[in-house]
Amino acid sequence: MKPSVLVTRAIYADVVDRLSQYFDVDSNQEDLVLDAAALKARLAGKAGVLANAADKIDGAVVAALPQLRAVCNMAVGYNNLDVPALTAAGVVATNTPDVLTETTADFGWALLMATARRVTESEHYLRAGKWKRWSYDMLVGMDVYGSTLGILGMGRIGQALARRAAGFGMNVLYHNRSQLPAETERALNARYVSKAELLAQTDHLLLVLPYSPESHHAIGAAELAAMKPTATLINLARGGIVDDAALAAALRNGQIFAAGLDVFEGEPSVHPDLLTVPNVVLTPHIASASEKTRRAMANLAADNLIAALDAGPKAGHPPSVINPEVMARRR
Ligand code: GLV
């Protein structure tokens, strides 16, 4: 008998077909959002799950599902997973790094440009019929070329953003849990600084650090107050890294110039104050959403699930494991 797996949300039909070669697949192709109780109920008896970043798989879920052996996220971030609980229970956890790095960095650049140069605000202005004549100060923004880029979190995506900055003649500063090797810093033309210096010096601050209890509200009222009034803030990482209420207040009070947000605390809900300030560009968590990349993510998540459940050409060797000690213990 084939092992049973759950695909928690609609994905590409050919990826579901591929999983069906190895598994009895319960696929939520009708794309209902499964709440915690529905997710737990549908996971009963399943050996594995292809999940997305909104599916919370915590210690209580893991404890209720003794047959579960693999949780494979279709996302690079995995703050939806209680990795220590999964590891203790012998459940392999995987994510989808690398395949989305450049697409996500492209989108970071799109948000940065739109925010600094007031692209969405300008479009709203035009569509509302407010454009009657040229004015020297109509919708003036902040320069990107030649400015100082700040990157908080210098992993794969942060480095891809830094590489793009070279074409814009930018001075690149970064802060990270650990400093990069000198040769990587040289290649990226990026300088490691303290978080305080990053906040004080940066013209455009990009957040690309993982969410964890330590990074909760890494940007709150105090950090916003430490930024330049001409600065922009871009959050590409996870909701909860920014205190959205404090950000809305800072935008309203002119404490910073503008913000671009792809992620939100409690998404898909958006803090109501953010919806009423004009100087923020808002997008619905789409940084990795190119056709090619979303396909690559779905296929990598499927490869992980197949291999983690000891099937397919990479049996026992899922390509991107978060807790390799579980696979090692099984061998
Ligand atoms: C998206 O947010 C991801 O983590 O891949």
Automatic annotation (TrEMBL):
GO terms for cellular component: cytosol. Keywords: NAD, Oxidoreductase. It comes from the Bacteria. It holds the Pfam family 2-Hacid_dh. This is D-glycerate dehydrogenase. Belongs to the D-isomer specific 2-hydroxyacid dehydrogenase family. Residues 5-314 form the D-isomer specific 2-hydroxyacid dehydrogenase catalytic domain. GO terms for molecular function: glyoxylate reductase (NADPH) activity; hydroxypyruvate reductase [NAD(P)H] activity; NAD binding. SUPFAM superfamilies: Formate/glycerate dehydrogenase catalytic domain-like, NAD(P)-binding Rossmann-fold domains.
